[in-house]
What we know:
globular, Poly [ADP-ribose] polymerase, Phosphoenolpyruvate Carboxykinase, domain 3, two-stranded antiparallel sheet, mainly beta
Amino acid sequence: MNGLFGAGIYLAENSSKSDEYCTPNSTGLCYMFLIRAMLGRPYEALNAMNQQRLAPSGYNSVIGVTKATHPGAFLKKYREFIIYDRYQTRLEFIIEFRRVP
């Protein structure tokens, strides 16, 4: 519930966005999931939607848009995709990586 768009599954189209949330384990490895998601009819959010448990009525997901395409948006660099029903996602790959200094 504490996320910008509530209690959802947060996805990104850029691995660099997902990497911001990766914490290396004791051996320095990080893990990231590659997910196939069905957005259905997405709601384009210009502002935070704290405390959400579902997409707005009539929508299946939320896209947090950026200033690049929506000047009034509060996100600056990366779009975020939020799914509130885990059955709209499918795990494709688990990616194991180590950051290079």
